[in-house]
């Protein structure tokens, strides 16, 4: 098959068995095989010939391999992040945290930022790209994730402002930060996930005990000593965890607001010191 339009239709029909976004997956994989951006493919699909590499990419996706792993990257906020096996794939829902931070710092930008559980640098590097005068620290327990984060910082020209260290959440950290970002594991151990997540992404970045709250119980008590006056801590949560995580934050002395994602689901808790 040489016609990209027909090849895309065929691929999307096949991918419907494994993906909620089969047409998008097919377009991204076709563009990747052609070595171009998806937008260029969509502008002129008939101007290309289906490359030999396209069919093997579709077969990989049919085996539930995440599209981001196949492409080797995921776009997030205003940046492109390299990702691969062993690292949590950035989700669009997590952009809710950056949007909340932008609102909080509308008049005066943050100077010092920390991302607890930075993975491939997702929240930290998005924040540093947003505020060019800021510096930041990313902490993660996974050396594999930190390798991606360091490479991403270099690629984005942010390595000079992004320190990246192995750590256990906030344990042993000193200093205060204007912006604390954290997307911890929050899935209950017994919860069933889609195969492309369960079979490929690191379990340590997904699961957090019987109720999914184990890591919040460790993180939240450390936040008061790390948060600078006038600053904000923003935590990603599961869609049903607002009340439970908010109660932990309120017990630690925070005022709490909830932000919803584009799907109108509870997604981020915004923690500030009471006035």
Summarize the structure.
The protein has 12 helices and 9 strands.
The biggest beta sheet is recorded as: 7 strands, mixed
Percentage of β-strand residues: 15-25%
**Number of β-strand runs:** 9
Helix/strand structural class = alpha/beta
For the record, give the distance between the C-alpha atoms at the N and C termini, rounded to a whole number.
Answer: 65 Å
> What would CATH call the homologous superfamily of the largest domain?
Vaccinia Virus protein VP39
Strand order of the largest sheet: 5-4-3-6-7-9-8
Secondary-structure element series: HHHHHEEHEHEHEEHHHEHEE
Task: Explain how this protein is built.
- This protein has helices spanning 4-15, 22-34, 38-43, 54-62, 67-71, 95-104, 122-130, 143-155, 195-198, 214-219, 223-226, 242-251, and strands at residues 73-76, 79-82, 112-116, 135-140, 162-166, 177-182, 227-236, 255-260, 266-272.
- It has 275 residues and is α/β, with parallel strands linked by helices.
- The chain has a 7-stranded mixed beta sheet, with helices on both faces. A two-stranded antiparallel ribbon has the order 1-2.
């Amino acid at each position: 098959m040489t016609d990209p339009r027909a090849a895309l239709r065929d691929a999307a029909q096949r991918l419907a068995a494994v993906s909620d976004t089969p047409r998008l997956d097919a377009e991204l994989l076709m563009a990747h095989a052609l070595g171009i951006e998806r937008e260029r493919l969509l502008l002129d699909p008939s101007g290309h010939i289906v490359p030999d590499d396209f069919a093997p990419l579709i077969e990989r996706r049919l085996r539930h391999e995440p599209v981001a792993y196949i492409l080797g990257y995921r776009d997030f906020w205003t940046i492109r992040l390299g990702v691969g096996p062993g690292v949590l794939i950035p989700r669009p829902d997590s952009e809710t945290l950056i949007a909340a931070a932008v609102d909080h710092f509308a008049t005066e930008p943050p100077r010092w930022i920390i991302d607890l559980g930075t993975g491939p640098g997702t929240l930290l590097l998005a924040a540093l790209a947003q505020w060019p005068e800021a510096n930041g620290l990313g902490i993660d327990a996974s050396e594999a994730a930190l390798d991606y984060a360091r490479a991403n910082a270099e690629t984005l020209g942010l390595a000079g402002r992004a320190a990246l260290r192995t750590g256990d959440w906030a344990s042993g950290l000193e200093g205060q930060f204007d912006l604390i970002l954290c997307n911890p594991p929050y899935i209950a151990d017994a919860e069933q996930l889609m195969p492309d997540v369960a079979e490929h992404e690191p379990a340590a970045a997904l699961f957090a005990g019987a109720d999914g709250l184990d890591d919040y119980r460790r993180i939240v008590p450390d936040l008061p000593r790390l948060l600078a006056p006038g600053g904000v801590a923003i935590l990603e949560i599961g869609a049903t965890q607002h009340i439970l995580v908010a109660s932990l934050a309120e017990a630690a002395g925070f005022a709490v607001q909830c932000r919803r994602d584009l799907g109108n689901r509870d997604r981020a808790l915004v923690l500030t010191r009471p006035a």
